[in-house]
């Protein structure tokens, strides 16, 4: 992404020849990097939540509450998965991107415009992976509810980060 | 019926659902109860399109630049330089803590990054010199919020994106208010130092030491000069400036200062990628939330409620400061701006408040909100860095919070504080 | 109200689009005696870009939406035909093309076919008059004056090709970044209607020279979900299409009224307005010839639509000439 945008600045400023595609290409990469990294962020505890009430409750009740919250999360992601699928395969996905092309013949003579569905798939994949993570976290909670927290292996590299824009 | 999405969201939030899912679950459930299942698609689509924006890309870039600078001892150099500058004042290390945040703010766009980069260095140092740990943590948190007020700033980018303002103008407008908060905190420390007998100052750095410390921090401290210079002279746009910042910090960390090795890169990229993905999703979810607010005609309702109380801009600004302070307790600055900016901004602009001035009032207020529980990201980050409980830090931070609230009032009622720099650069008439 | 139509435009309440929508709402609600309501959402509250909004039109979450040709070109590339330069001479001809010929019907049929019968083109109005060249550097009186000028363009192919053909350096800048980019010199010029230039206060960003070459008509494409439209009774359908006819007239008239103030403001802000002579216009027209070849060769459905359009323009010119003759009699 960085290289693409630096190329854009260089071409425009140094060569006085602006390229049409870097803007869209870097957005493409940003969407995919979000889709692929968000599940890891979620797994490592990077999604901000208030844990005050949960910490005040007795352990059994607290675990029960987090199972309920996981249920809400899974429901949200499950519905998003269905919508995401119809979005990628629907009208919106059939739009051409403005400026992205890929070669469709080996001799690089024929190029085609990339459809928006290639970009929209980033969120679908992200949602699918988030759903997997949510199911894993829910199962861990259930396990802890039934058998106690012992015997669960910790998730590595747990982070304590808010939304970094702040 | 639909307007219950707001209380439902708060319930989810207090119960401990991650903000992102709360922003989506609450409106979706109400749409469903209201027989508008079809409109749930709008939520999904707005998450996607909310993230899919070129100007927003500056946020992950500034984060990556911050990570690169952070990784290899650059934070230590900045602390060293701040020590040479103000270490000899009474309450020296506390003053250093404020100044390092002001310097770091020119490199980083995020208060949370400030806490994790500087807090881990300066809190132990202060503790060793005999400062109470809660005090050390509190001043770290209170000064960290300067990060997104002095440019670059993730929150300003979000504001400009949502409100169609110029990022460059907002960046310029944040400089003086950011410095002002820093000075106010330093004065507070000075007063406290005398009253509470804070630890002795360190010996004054001589010119040679000061020059050495300045030299060590020189290249990182040039970042804001490069950024604002490049933007104002038209070499690059603010978004491109963020990419330039990444290139610059990469270059000086690897080749000039050699504080970063190639082997560190995957780790740096992963960390930046994780934090950015969280911000991006949050922005997307807030955009979706806003869509349902529009369907429920919440903006019109809130606007007319506000205007029915009073039409005096001065009183309204006070009311809005209170509103933002309360909102800041429950929402992070980014989502709060996305949801409230388009509602509040036009009211004040139509009453004659300059849009850039209002932006600064809103941004500073919500940034200070990062210090207030229950949803105080900077408190969370400081707690993680210091090992103290959030409750302890939030009590210790109270005096500084009060000072910052007074500064907010100053910024609110003296537009020149925010507007002078953008006016000189020709962004505001 | 039994039926509530949800209409959205990505502009604000000062825009021609809003004037059109208000007229539409008023007509439809009155003519249906309240049976059909229209709910207007301005700005990006529901959706922010052409592809996103048209996806909403297709699946019924949005009933009515206005896009420029750029906003819909990703799915219907041939509608960029309206962006081809110097094809129509003035408002009277353009309005005759859009009301008196079957050109809109032709586009409607193509768009329905390409969207699987989901997106229906209701009418084509205007949003912002005509596209002119505005820049920060100097007067543009001949194609050579554009040489090397950093012109802001949307990233779509046709505007890029047009700028390159004229020797300018096309620079894609997102609309929200345009003000700052003009101010700092990242770009030096832009092609917009006068009302957009003044509502964005581009004069404050250094725009000083405006050349009224009117290279393209700023068509506003009004779309409606076809399933939604078909779900109405024939009587209701007629009310809706009549509403769109009223809307079209309103959007024809509104920019003409609004630009008076905008031009005055532009001059007051120190701007220079230049009207090219007939010879200068002819020189511009000759210079853009390659764009037409490019359009025919590279745009799906290009030759077919261009033929239909030039035929419609010829027909409209004849009709306007006849009208004029009658009026001058
Ligand atoms: Na600090
Ligand atoms: Na900053």
From TrEMBL, chain A:
Keywords: Cell inner membrane, Cell membrane, Membrane, Transmembrane, Transmembrane helix, Transport. The chain crosses the membrane at residues 62-85, 118-139. GO terms for biological process: C4-dicarboxylate transport. It is found in: Cell inner membrane. One of its GO terms (molecular function) is transmembrane transporter activity. Its main location: membrane. Residues 1-141 form the Tripartite ATP-independent periplasmic transporters DctQ component domain. It is a multi-pass membrane protein. InterPro entries: DctQ, TRAP_DctQ. GO terms for cellular component: plasma membrane. The complex comprises the extracytoplasmic solute receptor protein and the two transmembrane proteins. Belongs to the TRAP transporter small permease family. Part of the tripartite ATP-independent periplasmic (TRAP) transport system. This is TRAP transporter small permease protein. It comes from Tabrizicola piscis.
Automatic annotation (TrEMBL), chain B:
Part of the tripartite ATP-independent periplasmic (TRAP) transport system. The keyword Chaperone does not apply. Belongs to the TRAP transporter large permease family. The complex comprises the extracytoplasmic solute receptor protein and the two transmembrane proteins. It comes from the Bacteria. The keyword Cell inner membrane applies. The chain crosses the membrane at residues 6-33, 54-82, 102-123, 135-162, 168-189, 210-235, 241-260, 272-293, 313-331, 336-353, 359-385, 397-421. GO terms for cellular component: plasma membrane. Residues 8-417 form the TRAP C4-dicarboxylate transport system permease DctM subunit domain. It holds the Pfam family DctM. This is TRAP transporter large permease protein. GO terms for molecular function: transmembrane transporter activity. It is a multi-pass membrane protein. Signal peptide: none annotated. Keywords: Cell inner membrane, Cell membrane, Membrane, Transmembrane, Transmembrane helix, Transport. It is found in: Cell inner membrane. It comes from Tabrizicola piscis.
